[in-house]
Design brief:
Layout (H helix, E strand, L loop, with lengths): L1 H21 L3 E6 L3 E2 L6 E9 L4 E4 L4 E4 L4 E4 L2 E5 L6 E5 L3 H4 L12 E4 L7 E8 L5 E3 L5 E8 L6 E3 L2 E2 L8 E3 L3 H7 L11 H41 L2 H4 L2 H37 L4
Parallel strand pairs: 1-3, 2-4, 3-5, 3-6, 4-7, 5-8, 6-9, 7-10, 8-10, 9-11, 10-12, 11-13
Antiparallel strand pairs: 12-15, 13-14
Length: about 290
């Protein structure tokens, strides 16, 4: 009897926990905002979502989209998905137990998939997953970039670009990109194929790298000078007072102390430069 009551109690507790989990979903439908943040996901897509013409939408690493039946993502503008190996962006079924805790099993054909229209050229997707859809990704333009995408359990196809079904191995990373030569031949502006954040990223990254390297050199040089000037000061301080407390001895001691302090200040400044540069350098890997 005791085991039965305990078992019932466990079921009730797990059910309440599940309700609390599903209540954390963020409903999503219609036009997407400029930035889709990961902190509000998983997103429960209740109706079709859109990247509208002339608009760029950025999706943060770790974002999860869970689609109801007969819903999908339509890209008419530019979609930028910047997942990472540790935090991929996920497009899956609302029944996907990995992310939703749903009691139903996810199956292929659960949702429509991602449709990139011709105006969606310049779309970039990195480190993402497309699961349990009808057609995975269907793109009407080849001028997109897909990097390390995982496709699995999709019904009819995983990825089709300009009518050509791509050779995708389920569960294995897939990448696709066209060359700048192809873009020139087709008359597509080269800037469309470039990451819109590339200039900002490269500027901050190389500036940070320069600061970090310069700060390390300055800090190392003046750190060594500080140790040497500290030894000189200790040597002067340890001499017999009869030889060091005259006017000339005092001047040498104060000069040695000032030199040590300058070297210390320069070494600290170099360390701060290196730290600031490293913060900027590693920050560029977040966007």
């Amino acid at each position: 009897m005791y085991r039965y009551v305990r078992g019932c109690f466990a079921v009730v507790v797990s059910t309440l926990f599940f309700i609390g989990e599903t209540a954390a979903f963020t409903d999503l439908a219609g036009e997407l905002p400029h930035i889709v943040t990961a902190d509000k996901s998983p997103y429960l897509v209740k109706a079709d979502i859109f990247v509208v013409t002339g608009k760029t939408v950025h999706v943060q690493p770790g974002t999860v989209f869970l689609f109801n039946n007969f819903t999908g993502l339509h890209v008419q503008g530019v979609l930028t998905v910047k997942g990472t190996p540790a935090r991929p962006v996920v497009f899956s079924s609302s029944h996907d137990r990995t992310y939703s805790g749903d009691t139903l099993n996810p199956t292929p054909y659960d949702w429509n998939g991602i449709h990139i229209q011709k105006d969606g050229m310049g779309t970039v997707m990195e480190h993402f997953r497309v699961l349990y859809s009808v057609k995975g990704i269907v793109s009407e333009t080849k001028f997109i970039s897909l990097t390390s995408g995982i496709f699995s359990e999709n019904g009819r196809s995983h990825c089709t670009i300009e009518g050509a079904e791509q050779q995708v191995t389920a569960g294995k990373p897939f990448s696709f990109a066209v060359s700048l030569k192809d873009a020139t031949v087709d008359g597509v502006p080269v800037k469309i194929l470039r990451d819109p954040q590339a200039f900002k990223r490269n500027t901050v990254r190389y500036s940070g790298l320069t600061l970090m390297a310069g700060g390390m050199v300055i800090g190392g040089f003046f750190g060594a000078s500080y140790r040497e000037s500290q030894r000189d000061l200790l040597t002067l301080s340890s001499r017999d007072t009869s030889n060091t407390c005259d006017e000339d001895g005092n001047e040498r001691w104060f000069a040695a102390r000032d030199k040590r302090d300058r070297n210390l200040a320069a070494a600290v400044a170099g360390a701060m430069l290196a730290f600031t540069g490293s913060v900027g350098f590693f920050w560029t890997f977040t966007f």
